[in-house]
Amino acid sequence: MSSPSRYDRQTRLGVIGRAGQQRIEQSRVAVLGCGALGTVAADILARAGVGTLCLIDRDVVEWSNLQRQSLYHEADAIAGRAKAEVAAERLTLANSTVRYEPRVADVTADNIGELLSGVDLAIDASDNFSIRFLLNDYSLRYRLPWVHGGCVGTTGQVMFFRGEGKPCFRCLVPQPPPSTAVATCDTAGVLGSATHAIASLQATDALKWLSGNEQSIRRGVWSLDFWENRSREVALPAALSESCPACGRGELTFLDAVGEHSGGAAEVLCGRDSVQLPAPRGAGDEIPQLAALAARWGQLGEVQTTRFFARLTLPDQLTLTVFRDGRTVVDGTRDPSKAKSLHARYVGG
Ligand SMILES: [Zn+2]
């Protein structure tokens, strides 16, 4: 449903106007991660009338998300619903004229091409460096513009990348830091108003680009501490790009690692009592038969199925969630070998 007045306050802006609005409505944007940054950026972009929003997230809603992830409700955490699915549902209530494509999936070198196919711009709203490095490689190869955002504690940063390199994200951060060296929201906490502010800056850059106002996008990386009232904008020196492995030397090692991630190692999920097991190698795009799996589980415990996953909660509160992309998350343990043996016993393959 739409009304002629829906975008009135936006088209009244001289910098957007009717022409800019039309461009926004014809665009296709991917939001990588539907957490603190993704929910807010997606909400702004949906209300602004972006034509299609691809909402990509691998996780389910948890209680610790509700402090800042403003599209979710308590009932979503209780039911453990998939974030991408809930986000699409809530955004439809705000603007039903937008086309939403929710995807419950991990972004890997194998599927990033499919996930970002036909996309005009991507919002980096992920909570990990591996997706960010992969997105940077993809952006350089296919000239996809994207808006980086990151937030932890009371600070955050935002930067727009045109997809042409010089600079790119690896000029800023040449190698993924060891996970032990990085403060995360799980370890350091995060201020809900800071994530809203950073996501809002990302959405602003996106709207500038989509409406044809590229000249208004800031060039450098903008870092802000919302508690200490500090902000600074730093342009990346050209020398950094000369020595950059990605845009300087053309090594797109994260994107070219196709196949290395599927069938890879189990991953203890940061800050959670959970282990993620990747899709079995060779599973390709084959969707596990979730209904058949749920039927097989029958009497073993509490069984829940949705369009996106099948979940078994065992009497001892261990939970296995098998997603359509073949991943399994085992909750209630941090021991990868225990998770693997549970997977072998209850999922097989
Ligand atoms: Zn670079």
Protein architecture, described:
With 349 residues, this protein is an alpha/beta fold. It folds into two domains: 8-242, NAD(P)-binding Rossmann-like Domain (Rossmann fold, 3-Layer(aba) Sandwich), CATH 3.40.50.720; 267-346, 2-Layer Sandwich (TATA-Binding Protein). Helices cover 32% and strands 20% of the residues. It has 13 helices and 14 strands. α3 packs parallel to α5 (83-94) and α3 packs across α10. The mean pLDDT is 90. Residues 165, 167-168, 170-171, 241, 244, 246-248 line the site of zinc ion.
Describe the structure concisely for a colleague.
The chain is of the alpha/beta class and 349 residues long.
Give a quick set of tags describing it.
alpha/beta, TATA-Binding Protein, 2 domains, 8-stranded mixed beta sheet, 13 helices, binds zinc ion, 20% strand, 349 residues, Rossmann fold
